[in-house]
Amino acid sequence: MLTPQLERQLVQRKSKTYADQVKWVLKRLLGGHRPEITEVAKELGMSSRTLQRRITDERTSFRRLLSEARRELARYYLQEPSLGVGEIAYLLSYEDPGSFFRAFHEWEGKPPREWRANQRRL
């Protein structure tokens, strides 16, 4: 028998869009290697082609969802002062910190260290 909390989580997970489910899986799989759509599809119990069709039906793409998952995790990790920017780049599966810096600047309009400093002031 499932506890009420676990049952609620299962219901919430099932009620989410495929895009939400993909981002949830991506966040779990990121960490030193870049997840492929085949890995995510396997986690969700479907073929990669079926997953591709479903997220396309929701007007998004795997690449966009990967970027959104990385952005959300980057913001979360940057709030943890013990993590360096290089470590965060690794956790988000960037090949090098420079790639992470460029992506973050594109997302937020400022470098990660400046964003982190601004968050501490808030």
What integer value in Å does the Rg equal?
A: 16 Å
- Share in helix: over 70%
Number of domains: 1
The CATH architecture assignment turns out to be Orthogonal Bundle
Sheet/helix structural class = mainly alpha
Instruction: Write down the overall geometry.
Output: elongated
Could you describe the largest sheet, including whether it forms a barrel?
none
CATH superfamily: Homeodomain-like
Intertermini distance: 44 Å
| Spans of at least 5 consecutive residues with low confidence | none
The helix-strand sequence is HHHHHHHH
Q: How confident is the prediction overall: mean pLDDT? A: 89
Regarding CATH, which class?
Mainly Alpha
What CATH calls the topology is: Arc Repressor Mutant, subunit A
Number of helices: 8
- How much of the polypeptide forms β-strand, as a percent range? under 5%
Strand element count: 0
Describe this structure in words.
The chain has 122 residues and is an all-alpha fold. It has a single domain, classed as Arc Repressor Mutant, subunit A (Orthogonal Bundle), CATH 1.10.10.60. The chain has helices at 4-15, 18-29, 37-43, 48-57, 62-78, 85-91, 97-108, 112-121. It is elongated, with a radius of gyration of 16 Å.
Secondary structure: elements and pairs:
Elements: H1 4-15, H2 18-29, H3 37-43, H4 48-57, H5 62-78, H6 85-91, H7 97-108, H8 112-121
